[in-house]
Design a protein that fits this description.
359 residues; Alpha-Beta Plaits; TIM Barrel; elongated; 5-stranded antiparallel β-sheet; alpha/beta
Length: 359
C-alpha cells in the first residue's frame, strides 16, 4: 500500500468559497478584522478566534499577501486556515485540510508545482563520479533532479525544493524525485552506480514511506547494490535515531548509503560513528580552492584520514580545477566529482576520452 502522506497531492481549488482563518490571539484577530473592513472584504466572526472570509479562489492572494505584511512570521505560522470551495458548514472531513496561514499562502502561489508533479514533468540529469587516481574510470552517476515547466524550460532543483518546503510539499516532491532518478536510470544502461539524494525529514516510517521506492527499483530490474542513497546535509534531521532507522532500512535491503556535504555542517563528523556510512561526500565549499587554502586543507586532510581509518570511501565534490584534483588525490580521496570531468547532462557519461585528457 502506498504512503498516503507522500503520494497525495494538495488539491487546487477552482471556484468561489470561504476562507476560514483562526488567529492565535485576540490582538491578531483584531488586526486582521480591521484590515478586512478597510479593504471592503466581506467577512463574519465565527467564534472568539475565527473569521470566515467570502471570496473567489482566484483572489486568495489578494487577501493573503497583505496579511503577510500585516502579521509577523510567528503569527503567520501559528494562525490556521482552510479554504472551503463552495462554502457551507465545516465538518470533521475538513480537518485534514487545515494548515498554517504561511503554508497556505505559499501553496496558493505554487499551483505550478502541484501541476508539475501531477503531470509528471520531472527528469533527472547525470553527473559522473570518477576514480580520483584515474578519472577515466567512472564509478557511477549522481542523479540530479530537474523540473520541466509548461513552456519546456528547466526548473532548478534548488527552486523546486525551496517552494516545496515553504508550502508543505516536501514529502511529495522527495518521493517524486526518487522515482524520477529511477526512471532516468532505466532509460540508460551505462550509469554504473546510481546515487540518489533523499530528505530524511520527508520520511515518517522507513518501512512504509520507502516501500514504493524499493518496489520501483525492483520493477525496473535494478540491482540493489547499484543504488546508493545520499543524506543531504541541509535536510539532515536532528533525530539521529530516526535517521539511523532510515539508513538501516536501506542497508538491510542491500543498498549503499552516503552522507552528503561533509564539512559544511557542525554535526557532520559527530554523525560518523552513529550512522557509519559507506561513502562520505566532501562538500564543494571545502574543496573549492583547497590547493591554496591551508585552513581548508587541514580540515579536509583530517576528514580523509578519519575515513581511511574507518574504511569509508570518500568522494570529493565540486572539483573544477586541476590543482584541486591533484590535491585531493594526493591526500587520499577515493573518488571525485565536478565540472572538471563533466557537467550534469540528460545522459550519463559514455565516452571516457574527455575524462582521460584531464587526468
Amino acid at each position: 500500500m502506498p504512503c498516503a502522506r507522500c503520494e497525495t497531492l494538495p488539491s487546487i481549488a477552482s471556484g468561489p468559497g470561504a476562507l476560514h482563518v483562526w488567529l492565535p490571539i485576540g490582538h491578531s484577530r483584531t488586526k486582521v478584522a480591521a484590515y478586512l473592513s478597510e479593504a471592503g472584504r466581506s467577512f463574519v466572526q465565527t467564534d472568539a478566534a475565527g473569521l470566515e472570509i467570502s471570496l473567489d479562489v482566484q483572489r486568495i492572494s489578494d487577501v493573503l499577501i497583505p496579511l503577510a505584511g500585516l502579521l509577523s512570521q510567528t503569527e503567520m505560522e501559528d494562525a490556521r486556515c482552510l479554504y472551503k470551495e463552495g462554502g457551507g458548514e465545516l465538518t470533521a472531513r475538513d480537518i485534514p485540510n487545515v494548515q498554517s496561514l504561511r503554508q497556505f499562502l505559499s501553496l496558493s502561489q505554487a499551483d505550478w508545482l502541484v501541476e508539475m508533479l501531477r503531470d509528471n514533468r520531472l527528469t533527472s540529469h547525470f553527473q559522473p563520479i570518477v576514480l580520483a587516481n584515474s578519472p577515466a574510470q567512472v564509478l557511477g552517476h549522481e542523479m540530479l533532479l530537474r523540473g520541466i515547466s509548461e513552456d519546456g524550460s528547466t526548473v532548478s532543483p534548488g527552486h523546486l525544493f525551496d517552494v516545496a518546503r515553504s508550502c508543505g510539499m516536501l514529502f511529495q516532491l522527495d518521493v517524486a524525485a526518487r522515482r524520477s532518478a529511477i526512471r532516468s536510470a532505466v532509460e540508460h544502461s551505462d550509469t554504473g552506480k546510481i546515487f540518489i539524494n533523499f530528505s530524511p525529514t520527508a520520511i515518517y516510517d522507513p518501512s512504509h514511506c520507502l516501500r514504493s521506492t524499493v518496489s520501483a527499483i525492483d520493477e525496473a530490474g535494478i540491482a540493489h547494490d547499484r543504488v546508493v542513497f545520499e543524506v543531504i546535509e541541509s535536510d539532515r534531521t536532528v533525530d539521529v535515531f530516526h535517521l539511523r532507522g532510515i539508513l538501516n532500512y536501506y542497508r538491510s535491503a542491500g543498498f549503499g548509503v552516503a552522507l552528503d556535504d561533509i564539512g559544511s555542517g557542525y554535526s557532520s563528523l559527530n554523525l560518523l560513528h552513529q550512522l557509519r556510512p559507506d561513502y562520505l561526500k566532501i562538500d564543494i565549499d571545502l574543496i573549492r580552492g583547497i590547493d591554496s587554502d591551508p585552513y581548508k586543507a587541514l580540515i579536509a586532510e583530517k576528514i580523509f584520514e578519519i575515513a581511511r581509518e574507518l574504511n569509508i570511501l570518500t568522494i570529493a565534490e565540486g572539483v573544477e580545477r586541476q590543482p584541486e584534483l591533484d590535491w585531493v588525490r594526493a591526500h587520499g580521496a577515493t573518488y571525485a566529482q565536478g565540472y572538471l570531468f563533466a557537467r550534469p547532462a540528460a545522459a550519463p557519461q559514455r565516452s571516457t576520452a574527455a575524462l582521460t585528457a584531464k587526468s
